[in-house]
Amino acid sequence: MPLLLDQIKLTHPHLYRSFSLLPDAEAHLRRIGELDRYWEQLEHPVPEVILPASALPKDAVLSGEYDLIYAGGTLSLLHAAVMAGKYGRKVMIFDRQRPAKSTRDWNISRPELLKLSAIGLFTESEVDSVILRRYKSGWVEFYQPDGSQKRLSMENVLDCAVDADKLLGLAAEKVTAAPGSTLLAGTTFLCCYQFPDHVVVKVEDRAHQVFYYKARVLVDVMGILSPIAMQLNDGLPQTHVCPTVGTIASGFEDVDFDIGEILLSTGPADLSSGSGRQFIWEGFPAEEDRYITYLFFYDEAVSLNDKSLLSLFETYFRTLPEYKKPGKEFTLHRPVYGIIPAYSHDGFNRTREIAADHIILFGDAASLGSPLTFCGFGSMVRNLEHLTADLDRALGENNLLKKHLEKISAYEPNVASMANLMKYMCFNSATDEPNFVNDLMNEVMVVLDELPERYRQAMFRDELKIEELMMVMLRVAWRYPKVLTATWEKLGVQGSFGFLKNLAGWAFSPVR
Ligand SMILES: Cc1cc2nc3c(=O)[nH]c(=O)nc-3n(C[C@H](O)[C@H](O)[C@H](O)COP(=O)(O)OP(=O)(O)OC[C@H]3O[C@@H](n4cnc5c(N)ncnc54)[C@H](O)[C@@H]3O)c2cc1C
Predict the structure, then answer these.
(1) Ligand 1, closest atom to CA 75?
(2) Going by CA atoms, what residue is nearest to atom 3 of ligand 1?
């Protein structure tokens, strides 16, 4: 079989050159290809993976029985470690790759991270042991052709670089230490069968051998590729996406290891594909001399733009020197990548399906995090305490039907409202001037700069209160009236009403 690397030599020359230096390039290209199949999935008929009990083959033999089976082995580790360690539930986690191995690293603030020790999952020193580096501050800025962009600085926002694999590894140790609980690698979810009081999960191993396991609840944590989310949401599990690629590298010429570059753009929208893309960079110092850079853009899940991670990687390697200059000692250590999901709820409350009888979705499969701030990991950390306690209670009371399970969610009305702001960051050449996203965001930065620091911290930590968002929006509209026409053009009648419904839901929510 021809090597994947050779196949991209002519089509993606910059990516080819850079990945040729990696020992595990083929494995990464396979995972990138796996994620890029998401775009095809959106166009194909939705496969049925939640099946009635009657469809279970008569000769199916159960290989094990658990309280909870987690399909997907990333954020699931945190939830499962609490369910097994604190609540004594028997859990199984399987992943088609290796559980507790991520294709990314995470940034978060230390106070947020300490929530993991507050709920008893880790000790404070375990939490500190996964922090690779802590920065003094961070900043955000959006390109202005005349160099007048406002650089908005802030402290205690995404200022800790976390070793994701180490954190997940610690959680994995806690899962396997619990009697009867287990982790399975190289195991792919195929489908599940719903019985009145349980679910049977069908999986296959790398040799295509099929196994059946029984659980009281199947926890779907398969991320953006979740076939369960696809079926429950009629083939459109996300309304918006944020394709993201980057690397962990060392040897840049111009890096400040005390500062996080939270968001920045270096030019107007790129018009070479579909309706156009406003590229945004991020730069975060990691351990020792390593530095993480990301390139991404916001878009609708279904659009004419080329959203493949493969071509975004080509753009990344081609344009990286415009952002950070690789020096003579430049070394690529590892690529990081993924598709960050977003869902715009057209209602006063959550409208996305996140549960079925004996099935519940968490993490990116549930798509309830904020795409604006990238913080899917942060969302799990913030909500872990109630996501575990509520599920344990549901198991105890045997309330495992959809109507009960769907109440256990990381839905936050403020995050849902804030997600509307992402729509302004989806560039559209039909309605927007090439520098529209930068001009608007620059005004937001000016407004935030005039307000007390807690506004910007709250905005970038998904903790903004409704009256604070109103204050920001009114000030931006006053300074930059074009945002009113943009609202009409970009959100339309339905989107504008959707935004108002989200705000009303937030205003009347007990969690304000
Ligand atoms: C580049 C990048 C940087 C990020 N940085 C941050 C950050 O700084 N801070 C933050 O809070 N968030 C960040 N995020 C978001 C965060 O990484 C995600 O929200 C988080 O990884 C979601 O975890 P998950 O377990 O829900 O899904 P995933 O991480 O996508 O994991 C899903 C798992 O399911 C497995 N799987 C899929 N299909 C199957 C199947 N059929 N059978 C078996 N297994 C399957 C996959 O192999 C995978 O291991 C970032 C995301 C990206 C892409």
Answers:
(1) 25
(2) 104
Comparing CA positions, the residue from 174, 211, 212, 204 lying closest to residue 188 is 204
Write the CB contacts of 232 (distance below 8 Å, at least 6 apart in sequence): 50, 353, 354, 355, 356, 361
Q: Which residues pair with 211 in a beta bridge?
A: 203
Contact between 224 and 243 (Cβ < 8 Å): no
Close Cβ partners of 37 (under 8 Å, ≥ 6 residues apart): 225
Atom of ligand 1 minimally distant from the CA of 363: 26
Would strands 182-184 and 91-94 be described as parallel, antiparallel, or unpaired? parallel
- pLDDT, tens digit, 9 for 90 and up, residues 342-372: 998 888 888 899 999 999 999 999 998 876 7
Decide whether any atom of ligand 1 lies within 6 Å of the 506 Cβ: no
If you average pLDDT over residues 299-313, what whole number do you get? Answer: 95
107 C-beta closer than 6 A to ligand 1:
yes
Q: Where are the domains of the chain?
A: 413-507
Q: Ligand 1 within 6 A of 338 CB? A: yes
**Beta strand segments in 55-124, E:** 62-71, 91-94, 106-108
Rounded average pLDDT over 413-421:
84
Q: Do residues 443 and 476 lie in contact, with contact meaning Cβ atoms separated by under 8 Å?
A: yes
The answer to whether the CB of 460 falls within 8 A of the CB of 262 is yes
Task: Output the average pLDDT for the chain.
Answer: 94
> Which tokens sit at 227?
């076939």
Q: How confident is the model at residue 28 (pLDDT cuts 50, 70, 90)?
A: very high
Size of the chain, expressed as the number of residues it contains? 512
Which pLDDT score is estimated for 374? 65
**Contact at 8 Å (CB) between 438 and 485?**
no
- 202 in ligand 1 pocket by Cβ < 6 Å? no
Q: Which whole number is the average pLDDT over 93-99?
A: 96
Which atom of ligand 1 lies closest to the CA of 222? 34
Maximum Cα interatomic distance, the chain, rounded to a whole number of Å: 71
Per-residue pLDDT at 349: 87
Both tokens assigned to 404: 């009960």
pLDDT at 66 over 90: yes
Task: Say yes or no: CB of residue 143 within 6 Å of ligand 1.
Answer: no
Question: In ligand 1, which atom is closest to the CA atom of 337?
Answer: 1
**Pocket test residue of 101, 106, 206 for ligand 1, highest count of atoms within 8 A of CB:** 106
Which pTM does this prediction carry? 0.95
Interstrand relation of 137-141 and 259-264 (parallel, antiparallel or unpaired): parallel
Atom of ligand 1 nearest to the CA of 162: 8
> Which residues have C-beta within 8 Å of that of residue 233, sequence separation ≥ 6?
352, 353
Q: How far is the CA of 366 from the centre of ligand 1 (A)?
A: 11
Tell me how far the alpha carbon of residue 74 lies from the centroid of ligand 1, in angstroms: 6
* pLDDT > 90? residue 104: no
Mean pLDDT of the region 207-233 = 98
Alpha carbon nearest to ligand 1 atom 27, residue: 223
**What is the spatial distance between Cα 490 and Cα 274, in angstroms, rounded to a whole number?**
16
